[in-house]
Predict the structure.
Amino acid sequence: MSTIIYPSPIFGPIHSRRLGISLGINLMPADGKVCSFNCIYCECGLNEDHRPKLPRPTPEQVSEQLELKLQEMVSAGQLPDVLTFAGNGEPTCHPHFAEIIDDTLRLRDRYCPKAKVSVLSNSTMIHRQAVHDALMRVDNNILKLDTVNPDYIKMVDQPTGHYDVREVIDAMKRFQGHLIIQTMFMRGQKETADGIQESVDNTGDEYVAPWLDAVREIRPQQVMVYTIDRETPTLGLEKASREQLDAIRDRVIALGIPCSASY
């Protein structure tokens, strides 16, 4: 099965389903994956299959290469809609994440002031004050919340360290609305180590209703619901249907919160 290991520290631009023309910023090594989640649907594959040998890029390397790329894009007359922190793992795990955010905002203001700065995060580090403060400075603070069911999180998102969904919800509330919740909905099954098929379907009311309660409590500025778009490292996973995503989207909108669905 194919997986995507992105160049580092800069990749693209690419066309994002949700964000437009996106210039990617990858704070993980260029030869592997480092993440505090090990999601069974991750397009970059499972952590254990892509152990890197190279180090993370330094803040200086990120700043220098981002500036060169932005200069190139300005010369070509192709400015990005968004500068997106994503790539081969969780960007907020970088020890100099806050410093890199400051550098990125400075370069954005110089070369493409209309572009948004977005961070795609799995929310595992938002309890750290420096990470929280940095995310408050970006335009699109996009935080993952696939479900509020601890067993589902353990099976699908597979956190590599401590993860308490109640603590994550409380940390999300501290942003006081300056966040976008992003949730993966899917169907299908995964096989356990014992050969048992377990459902990964989180589109039913058993999962959606408690998740909606959390969304109502957090009161984000927006919600993005989406489904599988590329090949996954775990077999048996299936896309949620357009009808299912639309129904979930409409339930979010009924709460008075804007919501988009990507199929």
